[in-house]
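Z., the sequence and structure:
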Amino acid sequence: MAETPSPDLSDDAPTDADATDSSTADTKETTEKKDRSSGERSHRPGRGWRAALDVLLAFVLAFALNAFVWPAIVQILGLPSANTNQEMVRALVLRAPVLMGLMVVVAGPAAEEVLYRFVLLRSRRKVNSPLAHAVAALAFGFQHVAVAVLVNHDTAQLWNIVPYAAFGLIQSVLYVRGRSLIGPILVHVLVNGLGLAAVLAGSAA
């Protein structure tokens, strides 16, 4: 007579309780993923507004620095008012407005922010954050007086490192806060674009 196989009651055999626990765990994991996704979406508008306000504040500070603060310091301390870098750029803009406009407003800001914020600042922050900000700002400042100092031997232009370095520091803080180059590039484009517009308007008057 054939024997009837007995049900497998070993520990390895799946049970209804195991299936229920597995289903519950899957449902819980799916719910947690949806909650995280919903939370991330709910925070995105807040981050966007903060980033926009940071860009606006950085632009206002940069404009005030160039238009009011540094000119006042120059006048009070009796520093040389000439800025060889600005005079050289102005002459080139008047000679080739389209090409120099693209260089000053598009290519220049993008290249400088990548070099000084993404490459120099980002790599040094891992070692020493305050020092990284100082090095990036001073390097950015010196770049704008290098021709006058090294080629023309006009050491008086070293004073102009100060406003450029201050602007570089504003850009570095904006980059660190936003963790993106978009903000610094946008501010740089706006600042240079405003200066370009002033040059062209002055030449047309």
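Residues 73 and 79 are 8 Å apart (CA to CA). DSSP finds seven helices and no strands in the chain.

Let me know what you think.
H.
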